[in-house]
Write a structure and sequence with these properties.
It is a single chain. With about 180 residues, this protein is mainly alpha-helical. It folds into three domains: about 1-35; about 35-80, no CATH class; about 85-140. About 45% of the residues lie in helices and about 10% in strands. The chain contains six helices and three strands; from the N terminus they run αααβββααα. The chain has a three-stranded antiparallel beta sheet, with no helix packed on it. The protein is elongated, with a radius of gyration of 25 Å. The N and C termini lie far apart (about 60 Å). About 5% of the residues are buried.
Length: about 180
């Protein structure tokens, strides 16, 4: 049932999804609900584990920049919900990250992604590697794919630039040679 609901949400156009979200927020506020409190209650009911010692004995320990902090009663270390993720040391908003990931999915270059997200090109390059590393870690924990795999040959010209192999004649302009 919930997967059908998620599929319906994903099929909504952006303007209708925005209108629906605004309606749900206003209805929740009219009834005295705060959606951020509901998210925190959900996190409490799931049982937050300490990323350092894997203990369930954690307590809320204030907020920093709107993100809930926790402290472990076992090892006494503090952490948040983004500890251990690629968002851990970021100073940009989640919206900026979402825009950047969308640019990656659309196949945009690092420079174009940086321009659209209003970040430096070097930052975009580092972010790209953070996202790719996170995807690789996620993939390592998932099942291996199975099924039919198709492959095709690709011929690459060998470059002997800087060295002269003894078993090959000199290259002449205008001729194409493949090894």
């Amino acid at each position: 049932m919930s997967s059908e609901i998620y599929a319906l949400f994903e099929s909504l156009p952006p303007d209708e999804l925005k209108a629906f979200t605004a309606h749900v927020k206003s209805a929740a506020q009219a009834r005295g609900f705060n959606l951020s409190d509901l998210v925190e209650e959900k996190a409490d009911s799931d049982g937050i584990r300490c990323p350092h010692c894997n203990s369930l004995e954690v307590v809320k320990f204030g907020k920093r920049k709107g993100i809930q902090r926790f402290r472990c009663d076992g090892c006494r270390k503090t952490f948040s919900s983004v500890t251990g993720t690629f968002l851990q040391w970021t100073k940009k908003t989640f919206f900026t990250w979402k825009t950047f990931i969308k640019c990656m999915m659309e196949g945009r270059s690092v420079r174009k992604s940086a321009e659209l997200c209003k970040i430096e090109a070097k930052t975009a390059w580092v972010w790209r590697h953070k996202v790719l590393d996170a995807l690789a870690q996620y993939h390592d924990h998932q099942r291996r794919m199975s099924g039919i795999v198709e492959a095709d040959d690709t011929l690459f010209r060998l470059s002997y630039k800087g060295s002269k192999p003894p078993d090959r004649k000199s290259y002449k302009r205008g001729t194409v040679t493949f090894p």
